[in-house]
Amino acid sequence: MKNKKKIILVAILALVFMITIPQAVSARKGVGIVWGTETVIVSENSVHCVEYGLYNPWDEDVLASLTVDGDLKQVVENEESETKLIKANTLHDDAIPVELCFKIKEVYEKDCAVGEFLLCEQDCDCEQVSYSGEISVIEEGNKITGGFAGSKTALGVTVPLKLKVKCEEYKDYASAYVIVIAIVLMLIGLTLYKRRKKH
Amino acid sequence: MRKGGKKKEDVFLVALEIILVVCVIGLISDSLPSSGNLLTGQATTQTTTSQVTIQNYLSISSSSNLSAGVDFGTINSLPVTNQNATNNYNSSNNTEYSIAVSTDSNTNVDFCIHASELNTTGGDVIGLGNYSWEDDSVNNLTAPATYGQANLNTSTYAVGSTGVTPGNDNYYRFWLNITVAQPPGTYNNTLFFKGVPTGDGCN
Q: Which of B23, B64, B69 sits opposite A181 (nearest CB)?
């Protein structure tokens, strides 16, 4: 009877060992990215944000961050997102949202009759300006301790992004109108003032 | 004489008022949206929007042996040619370096690799021309192949296996040549692996 109990106990332990050990050996960690856009049309003098999702359907928690490469580096507001802890078994449906924002300055030349602000027009007869690059989610460095000789490894997933800057044709005479209106109002006021003074 | 002066003033004022009205109309029309939005007529149209969002997602993971680094062990005798990384072959003659594409992905993956200089803290360098690699979607004694190896590059990513589908692995092997003149020391670098959606290119 005692022997039977021992055998059952050993069998259970062996089963637990067989189930857990291979999992521990093959435990993996990795990174994933969810993206919904690769090309965006943006306006001049605007801030445009693109949302990505970070996920980790693997066995171990990971630290990961988003980085930007290519022309996009010129316009991105935060070159690298803050590092996020992504729990193991986080599927793409539960991805952690991370937003990257891009500040687009004035890129198309405008012709102004006076200075840089009066009687301006933009005719958009030039080539479209665009910023291309890559958005990467990088697994934060593996901690290798001891007297290691060889190569550490880094893993990431990269997706493309292109921002096309929209050129809007316009003729801006508003500032000229405002100045003329101000001058006319001043002249009318001055004329009426003089007339009242004469009486 | 005075009457003539007043008349002149009146004419001047009327002219100013006309200019004022013209400018105000100009300012208003300049501020309004383009005429395309203001067209009116007998024909009427109704519009509605149509929308679809396509979402892509992709996740990869390195094997525990690849995460732990690519080690070539301690070499006591130079020169060496095609020194195997310690996990190039296990007891079943399979490599233990691999990157898997998660089943929770909806796009195929192209794999890319590049490396930093392999050097000592003292500045001695093993040129990356001596550091070679091979990858394959098959894992056995002959794949990834020992021959036809590609060298690593510091500046650009090299293209590895392409079109690896979700749920599958990409396997790696690494080799190192060291000349007899190489100074002793502990040489380290970093290998960068990235997965990109198929067709997007590595660089």
A: B23
